[in-house]
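Handout, page 2. Input:
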Amino acid sequence: MARWKGFGRGLCPHPHHPLPNSTTAGGASFTLTVNGSGFNASAIVRWKGQNRPTTFVSANQLQATISAADIAIGQIAGVTVFDPVQGVSSNSVNFTVNNPVPTVTTSTPTTAGGGRGAKVTINGTNFNPSSQVVMDGTPLATTFVSSTQVKAVVPSASTGTVRTLRVSNPTPGGGTSGTFVTLTHIAIFPPQVGIGSFADEIDAATLIGELTLGWVHPEDWRDLDTMEVRLLDEDGRVVLWLGFLEDFGTHGALVIRDAEGRIASIGFPGDETSLSSEIGTVEMADSLINAAPGTTIEAVYAVQFDAAVRGRTFAVEISANNNEANNSEGHGFEPVGNITIPSQIFLPLVTR
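Output:
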């Protein structure tokens, strides 16, 4: 229950500390009660700047519905009240969503081909979209499946290597599982996952671009679990990591990962949503997944690049991995060239 004072006409709102001020990630939707003064029937409670369904109770109380999606991962969310009559918003107060500590029970497979990477499914509890598989202390690119299952790509290693895998949830709250599972590399040689391609087209004036990641699978593109493309700056730092997840929706979902491979946001082509990254946003309304029954799939990311990256060149790497039915089949990141964001266009000044 959050408390505000001074939300009256002509006064600047001054929120107090929310009571209660926290919950646990992965919980059900709930009603947030906001107490204060000067509320009217048009007042809106905002969660991280986004309007939430609000019920006007009285001049001293509002109630808002906070969805399960709002608290799916650990975070510190700013809560404000917006008064459209006066056109003012209160100061923000923090609501903490604490990540639980994950546990690990089992994993499949327990072995992988020596000299090649493997896609591992880990079972346990208290997983969420911010969970990350950690291999011998090193974070891995992780796919969230459910609160009891995550997947990760384990890099290649020589025969006989034993990997220790745990799952970690970030702060607030969170922690690393005390239990762990192992993956042993053995001498087998699995088939390839196919051939990837990448193309880009960026408008110099608007910096609106299309980044196209394609893949031709030897059998069926539905055997793919993930496709990835990432851009690296001059220092080798990942600044944009785009992914495709096959097992979401009719034709899959598009995601943005952070620099460590953790899913930061997810969307579906055609949605009126934007996925943010360090160097721009991916507009779901204009993005596409082109796929028909067969071997070929293409993910088209509509990216609005930030003006600050004009003239910069980024290295491009692509990767793909098969689904859990073919755990040992993986295609690690490989360089496919560079892209340069167009520089500012200056037209000559002509006088007569």
